[in-house]
Specification:
mainly beta; Rossmann fold; Neuraminidase; four-stranded antiparallel beta sheet; 3 helices; 42% strand; globular
Length: 423
Amino acid sequence: MRYKVLILTLAIIMVSSVALFAQIIVPPIQGPIIDKISIFIPDLTGSTLGTGDRRATEFVQVLRNDLINTGLFDVGGGGGVGLDSFGNINFQAFFNAGGEALVKGEYQSIGDTIKIDVRLFDIAREKALLGRSYEATSGKVREAAHRFAGLVMKQLTGLDGFFTSKIVFVSGANQNRDLYIMDYDGYAIRKLTNHRALLLSPNCSSNGTKIVFNSDKVWDQDLYVLNLVPSVKETRLTRGFRLDQSAEWSPDGSKLAYSSNGDIFVANASGKGAVNITGTRAIEVSPTWSPNGRQIAFVSDRSGSPQVYVMNSDGTNVRKISTGSYNTDPSWSPNIGINRIAYVRVEGSEANIFTVNPDGSDEQRLTWSSGRNENPSWSPDGHYISFSSSRSGAKEIYIMYLNGQNQLQLTRGGGKTFPTWCK
């Protein structure tokens, strides 16, 4: 049997690094993103006139799409604006067209691989800010584009890109569900489990190597861990006639918080040493850790209806932070600089996603569409949220910026819920 080897190599092109907009954007938590960066990304110039390479086209398409998906950039192709037939740059033409930044690249087809040299320019100053050279086989071109998009985003906004990250989600219905994984933009979907059971609530560890979830594959709901490296391997963590569910890794990956028979427990990563930190008569579920691991948000009906509460990680100092009649499914941003909690408010047949500060202040509604918008999960950098929505008539996976702007549908076919973002 012959195997196709996928190769991606990288070389750094030394250029003058200039602070373009002095790390211009501190994107708003509330309100629209007004001052988007205008960036032109023309097609790559080929090494042989009159020929093309679909891999060069793919690189540019992925790069453009990544920056558009952030909601922070106005992306133009730049065809015919400021490049002559030899690929020389007319910076004044790009400036007159409203451009602030430019990505220009060349490619060379070398058998099964393609070499891409690409640079980011400050148009006003007519200076290169960064450059990279990639050699990739067909299966690695998307990864190369994702990597360069991350560098562009970091240089122009000061924010880390999330373009090489993955999203794990549940697909299926009723008692026939399994875990799947895909690129953050919905590409390269593949199946991870074969439970064909009531599988729910996956959560990815901060280093992206493990997924914890609950499933009734063996009689009742138990916790399972799926190791993704060096290869996919599944381990059952809990046993016994209990309802174990909605587990989440602590920020350092050393502990798990989860719900068991309506109480919140904290255990070691192996599932051992579990301690009940609530112990009330109420039903308490869906724990989520603060970025520093010192607090846990969770859902409790102790006041009569499901509400979001915050407590210390040992169960002390409990306080309610949500308002309204029915709130559930909290998720705490892993970025301590953001420090917001996303959650779901249920009103009749509709559900929408809100965010709030850990003290309950500054509540903001993010989704307004009809249907059910649920299962919020933050990106590794803490600036974006994945979620499921039935707005199109079937449950699909979406992403949006943390203020609710730029909501994008990633999947098709229905039956897709519980996204969790993996590094």
